[in-house]
Design brief:
Strand content of chain A: over 45%
Number of strands of chain B: 11
Mean pLDDT of chain A: 91
Order of helices and strands of chain B: EEEEEEEEEEE
Distance between the termini of chain A: 41 Å
Helix content of chain B: under 10%
Oligomer: heterodimer
Shape of chain A: globular
Largest sheet of chain A: 6 strands, mixed
Strand content of chain B: over 45%
Radius of gyration of chain A: 14 Å
Distance between the termini of chain B: 32 Å
Shape of chain B: globular
Mean pLDDT of chain B: 94
Number of helices of chain A: 0
Order of helices and strands of chain A: EEEEEEEEEEE
Structural class of chain B: mainly beta
């Protein structure tokens, strides 16, 4: 089965750096996704990690450790518009019984304050 | 125009009524999904389809049915709506030949069952 944990809420200050953690337990793993969702809107893709290490994309970076079942999303130079929910999602391995079904965590609501 | 279009965007109905939510896409993707989102519960998969002849149940399919009328169209039906089906419903697509876990979401359909 799949079990994904991430903090429910976080607060940070504009201009600061924030790290949103995600831990997962899965019977078969083929990658980890991060999505951003502003209130009342659809989720949008942020990043994808399949190998261990850091993937950097502008102000956002995502890290993965497959052996530890751990990922984090790092947001630098926070802006007010970064206030949103951040969803961690696991992509199961082919043949695991959950092939092709992206499994989402409950999401972390980030509030950026001036 | 949006690549993934959901109709209706908002619907209020009464218990026992039949409701259909429709989704169409112009992305040419083979895979389509229906998720529901409830506060504190994240995104949960209702049904998914990898091609026109392939329909699969997700985590919470009871009380729902789907139809994949064409590669571009995937509709969700509530045969007899009940109040606990009040939620925000998202349709999503992905390209199984590339990064199948990168989902493209519609804008959502907010359903209220009284």
């Amino acid at each position: 089965g799949q079990n994904i944990d991430q903090p429910t809420e976080m607060t940070a200050t504009e201009g600061a750096i924030v790290q949103i953690n995600c831990t997962y337990q899965t019977s078969g793993f083929n990658g980890l996704f991060w999505y951003q969702q502003h209130a009342g809107e659809a989720p949008t893709f942020l990043s994808y990690n399949v190998l261990d290490g850091l993937e950097e994309k502008g102000r956002f970076s995502s890290f993965l450790s497959r052996s530890k079942g751990y990922s984090y999303l790092l947001l630098k130079e926070l802006q007010m518009k970064d206030s949103a929910s951040y969803l961690c999602a696991v992509y199961p391995l082919a043949g695991s019984g959950n092939t092709g079904k992206l499994i989402f965590g409950q999401g972390t609501t980030l509030q950026v304050k001036p | 125009d949006a690549d993934v279009t959901q109709t209706p965007r908002n619907r209020i109905t009464k218990t026992g009524k039949r409701i259909m939510l429709e989704c169409s896409q112009t992305k040419g993707h083979d895979r389509m999904y229906w998720y529901r989102q409830d506060p504190g519960l994240g995104l949960r998969l209702i049904y998914y389809s990898f091609d026109v002849k392939d329909i699969n149940k997700g985590e919470i399919s009871d009380g729902y049915s789907v139809s994949r009328q064409a590669q571009a169209k995937f509709s969700l039906s509530l045969e007899s709506a009940i109040p606990n089906q009040t939620a925000l419903y998202f349709c999503a697509t992905s390209d199984g030949r590339r990064r199948g876990g990168e989902l493209f979401f519609g804008e959502g359909s907010r359903l209220t069952v009284l």
